[in-house]
Amino acid sequence: MKKDNPLRQTLTLVKKDLTLELRQQYAFYGVLLYIVATVFVINLMMGRPDDKVWNALFWVIQLFVAVNAVAKSFMQENRGRLLYFYSIVNSRVFIAAKLIYNIILMALMSVIALVCSVAFLGNPILHPGYFIGMVLLGGTSLSLLFTMLAAIAAQANHNAALMAVMGFPLIMPVLMLLANISLSAFVTVYQPELPKMFLLLGGMDILVVALTMILFPFLWKD
């Protein structure tokens, strides 16, 4: 299989992960329960919050959705299966497939989180198209970052504490950027710093992908 087209190998691995998820539905139902329960409890405690609080709560929910959905993607790969993949595919092909799969999974979970938030917490969004785009973009950013962290933690015997320690200083600037950019969906006033924030977020995503592609082959050998 190592002689096959890398793109075909990547798509095959993505298809494999999607097929396993459809059969087991381990991440889907677990995260779905978390989203519904969290939003419902927030509704019972706070009712319908104002715009800024709604936005902040939504991205906090997105953070924990990413932790539960994306970070667990490597947990289903036991040592024997990883050794098998090591013998048949290139390391960059393997991690690229994980990145694509987690982007798809996180996009689905993000849309579900948005629907539940609107249903239980009201809809203060003035520009829904813009906010939906931000939700998908933010879900992509979170999935890329947590895929990298999960890959590192998986090589340390799935040490969750390691992922938490590494993830905190990395995730904070991403969350702050997403919250600030998405605030434009709740106001009619244009934010002059918006293009710079988009460029910064895009640059961080590219950096995460580049670091993942560079670092993972060294982890893969271990």
From TrEMBL:
Its main location: membrane. It comes from the Bacteria. Keywords: Membrane, Transmembrane, Transmembrane helix. GO terms for biological process: cytochrome complex assembly. The keyword Transmembrane applies. The keyword Cell inner membrane does not apply. It holds the Pfam family CcmB. It is found in: Membrane. InterPro entries: Cyt_c_biogenesis_CcmB (IPR003544). Signal peptide: none annotated. GO terms for cellular component: membrane. One of its GO terms (molecular function) is heme transmembrane transporter activity. It is a multi-pass membrane protein. Coiled coil: none annotated. The chain crosses the membrane at residues 26-47, 53-71, 99-122, 128-153, 160-186, 198-220. Belongs to the CcmB/CycW/HelB family. This is Heme exporter protein B.
